[in-house]
Amino acid sequence: MLKSLLKPLFALCIEWPFMRFWLGLRIHQHHNLPKQGPAIIVANHNSHMDVFALMGLYSPLQQNQIHPVAAADYFLSNKWLSWFAINILNIIPVTRQNGGQNNPLQGCEEALRQNKILILFPEGSRGEPGKMQPLKSGIWYLSAAMPTVPIIPVWLQGTEQIMAKGNRIPLPLFIDINIGSAMYYQPDKDQFKADLLNNLLALRPQYTKRDSDD
Description:
By secondary structure, the protein is an alpha/beta fold. The protein is 35% helix and 17% strand. The protein is built from 8 helices and 7 strands; from the N terminus they run H-E-E-H-E-H-H-E-H-E-H-E-H-E-H. A 7-stranded mixed β-sheet has the order 1-7-6-2-5-3-4, with helices on both faces. The termini are far apart.
């Protein structure tokens, strides 16, 4: 019972005030955001702030439905970070190199079967601001296992300035979040990855104030 309250309390007392008042979220095409699962949100990845920005799209009461997918070798590397990642961020840890012995996406598949919403960064690690690294194949394998689950591309802009690599104090700047239309599994892996990359890159342009929150 206590564990199920930790993430909503963190969102209510820390995450939401920080994201909404210290920073600011300008959300574009909000109507494309999935209100319930199963669904997979995929986004570009430039900063540790990315996951908090995406979690901030949902209310504190919805936080237990949201699961960031994160690298086990990093987030489970010490007991304090591991406790925070599991109990507060509610991550699903994925082993990036498992020698082919087990299904590293099993936890993701189980969460989707329970109608959860996953947050996934298909580049696999933080890249250079404004540029996409080649997409990893994990999102295709996950989609192949759960072909009816929608995949929602999201472009984040501003997180790379707020919390760039080597920056320990977040700067009070706006974050633009542009939410694209859902896409679905297709059997050609290379074409799927190319389409996903193109959908993400198509969300990059600057927006006017009138476009926000429509």
